[in-house]
Design brief:
With about 350 residues, the protein is mainly β. The protein has 3 domains: about 1-30, no CATH class; about 30-255, Exo-inulinase, domain 1 (Jelly Rolls), CATH 2.60.120; about 270-350, Lipocalin (Beta Barrel), CATH 2.40.128. Helices cover about 10% and strands about 35% of the residues. It is built from 3 helices and 25 strands. It has helices spanning about 5-20, 250-255, 270-275; strands at about 40, 55-60, 70, 80, 85, 95, 105-110, 125-130, 135-140, 165, 175-180, 185, 190, 195-200, 205-210, 235, 240-250, 280, 285-295, 295-300, 305-310, 315-320, 325-330, 335-345, 345-350. Strands 2, 4, 5, 7, 11, 14, 15 and 17 form an 8-stranded antiparallel β-sheet that branches. The structure holds magnesium ion. Magnesium ion binds near residues 126, 137 and 235.
């Protein structure tokens, strides 16, 4: 064995535990009952239903809106729709939206059967599947012990809820989920993992959790490439769990567009910049000052706050970080005689003091 090999084996031994844990960021095994049980808390009083804001896509608001949903095979679902809710029918399969979504703020209300029947994962089990892959567990977790990563509010098989904020069987409960889909590069590799924040009955139970991959029973799945938008699905786990008042907001549609940073469009020599320097008297009261420091022009305004000015032309300057524009006027093309200061839609004139 030469020194190259011994170094290699040394490094493997050194980093071996890292290899073991790096894949999922925890040393707990999937569905481990030894994982600490989330503390049971009483959730705050919530006045449900929480109705959608005007920019929401409403996915279920009452009987007829079952039409927004279908079976996983694209055929009409056999889930029962009554009044203001629909209910899972055992053996009928998952249900999914006809529309597809990416990043969302999702509100959904659910109730597990009362009186409760069964235990652990067999009691009031269903699930909210973002993009048909990433499950927030729905389960009757009121006085019902189960493995922590499979509780209500868990990202199934990955993250237990931070606390158990469950209400009793039969009572309406709410999830508010902020979901950021994974991003893939053009080789189909994940470059940004999915993230989820979940409120259960108004209580934070998942705080911007990074998903290791798709959620699954007994294991988690590595990320595999999928479309940017996919249906929202609800699980048939054999229990007649009810859902109502389902709406979401599409975050990619409302996200702010990025801006391009303001830059100098022309370069002015210090000897030229020097000409702008001075005190400019405002029409009502007070002054603006223009200074030259470190080869840059600065505006002193709003109580001597300092704004770096970037020349766009000989007349127009823009503050680098604040939406202030300063336009200079010249009488004889040599020295500015006044400046026009524009901020939040208002322009004021200031005349240069002699
Ligand atoms: Mg489930």
């Amino acid at each position: 064995m030469n020194s190259y090999f011994s170094l290699r084996y040394f490094l493997i031994i050194l980093f071996f535990p890292v290899f073991l844990t790096a894949q999922n960021g925890t040393q707990w095994r999937v569905h481990d009952l030894n994982r600490p049980q989330p503390q049971v808390i009483s959730p705050p009083v919530q006045y449900l239903p929480i109705l959608p804001p005007s920019d929401a896509v409403v996915l279920f608001s009452g009987k007829e809106s079952i039409n927004n949903w279908q079976g996983m095979d694209g055929k009409p679902t056999k889930w029962i729709s009554q009044d203001d809710y629909f209910e899972c029918v055992k053996g009928s399969g998952y249900i999914q939206t006809k529309q597809c979504f990416g990043d969302v703020q999702l509100h959904i209300e659910w109730a597990t059967p009362a009186p409760p029947k069964g235990e652990s994962q067999g009691r009031g089990n269903s699930g909210v599947f973002l993009m048909r892959r990433y499950e927030v567990q729905v389960l009757d977790c009121y006085n019902n012990k189960t493995y922590p990563d499979g509780q209500a509010g868990a990202i199934y098989g990955q993250y237990p809820p931070q606390v158990n904020a469950s209400r009793p069987a039969g009572e309406w409960q709410s999830y508010d989920i902020i979901f950021h889909r994974p991003r893939f590069n053009n080789l189909g590799q994940v470059v940004q993992k999915a993230r989820m924040t979940v409120f259960h009955n108004g209580v934070l139970v998942q705080d911007n959790a990074t998903l290791w991959g798709g959620t699954d029973w007994l294991k988690y799945r590595e990320y595999s490439y999928h479309a940017d938008k996919l249906p929202l699905a609800l699980q048939d786990h054999g229990n007649p769990v009810r859902y109502r008042n389902i709406w979401l907001r599409e975050l990619e549609k409302i996200r702010e567009k990025p801006a391009t940073a303001v830059q100098a469009k022309i370069k002015l020599e210090e000897t030229v910049l020097q000409k702008y320097v001075g005190t400019y008297k405002k029409e009502k009261k007070g002054v603006h000052k223009i200074e030259l420091r470190g080869g840059k022009l600065w505006l002193l305004a709003h109580g001597n706050r300092r704004f770096e000015l970037l020349p766009q032309s000989k007349e127009l300057f823009k503050a680098r970080f604040t939406a202030i524009d300063v336009r200079f006027s010249f009488a004889d093309d040599a020295l500015p005689t006044a400046l026009y200061y524009t901020f939040t839609g208002h322009t004021g004139k200031a005349v240069r003091e002699k």
